[in-house]
Amino acid sequence: MVGDVLDIHNRGYSWNITFGRGLQDWELEDYSLFLIALHEIQIRVGEGDCSRWRLARDGIFSVRSYFQSLLGFVESSLPWKMVWQSKLPPRVAFLLWTDMRGQVSTVDNLRRKGFYVTEWCYMCKKDGETINHLFIHCDGVRWLWDSILASQSMNWVLLRRIEDLVWAWKRKFRDKDSKLLWNLIPRCIVWCIWRERNDRYFEDQTKTTEQIRELFYLTLYTWFNAVAKNPVVGLSNFLLFLSCLNFDLSLLRSNIHMFKKYENDYL
Ligand SMILES: [Zn+2]
After folding, report:
1. 15 pairs with which residues across the strands?
2. pLDDT bracket for residue 162 (50, 70, 90)
3. 193 alpha carbon to ligand 1 midpoint, in Å?
4. Confidence category of residue 78, pLDDT binned at 50, 70, 90
């Protein structure tokens, strides 16, 4: 117990540490670091001797709190309202939430759990797959973020984490439906990337860049009409609605018949 190695006197306290054997030369540096660590601890003289885990509010150790501290993860900082109060389909909200908590079954997480999987990103076919790589940094998906933001004349700095991106994704709009559409976009991109990644991983099926773009707009169309105050009926009208909001659909328009053809397959 702490009280056994603590000498309390008039001027405060001092540590009285003894070891079972003498220290070797190569252990002196560790010993000095140990003493420094001890002196950084503040002791409340007069209080009962007990141990507290500083990384948990209740002072009780848990693997979860330690793991989160290693990840530099602060749960209270997560924008949970933006996920659970965004009228998303529940499975999408769940994906986004687990994604932000670092719990999606990407390759790095599966390996941490002891599964044997190759470190391979199925989207860019080169880098190791982590959550933030897969959804933000990967060359195989970043073009989708770039194309959306470029069409809105917005330059963006590549953010480090997915939760930072959700926090940063804020814009002012005059009407609620335009705001709704904008807020659905990052969730929709994450959903389409995850779906395409799983098709490649489990089904050995790969969509082209154009098909992924089409999947994105079709999914956005479906989600928007499911929750909008004033739904935009018909795909053509929806694309017109997007054009009015300055979305660049030039890559879609030349392919509009093909786009419609995939509607039944994707949704
Ligand atoms: Zn990648």
Report:
1. 6
2. confident
3. 11
4. very low
Predicted confidence at residue 206, as pLDDT, reads 92
Which tokens belong to 246? 């300055």
Query: How far does residue 140's CA lie from ligand 1's centre (Å)?
Result: 6
Q: How far is the CA of 137 from the centre of ligand 1 (A)?
A: 7
Of 151, 169, 104, the closest CA to residue 132 belongs to 104
Residue 197 CA to ligand 1 centre (angstroms):
10
Cα of 134 vs centre of ligand 1, distance in Å, is 6
Contact 48, 135 (CB under 8 A): no
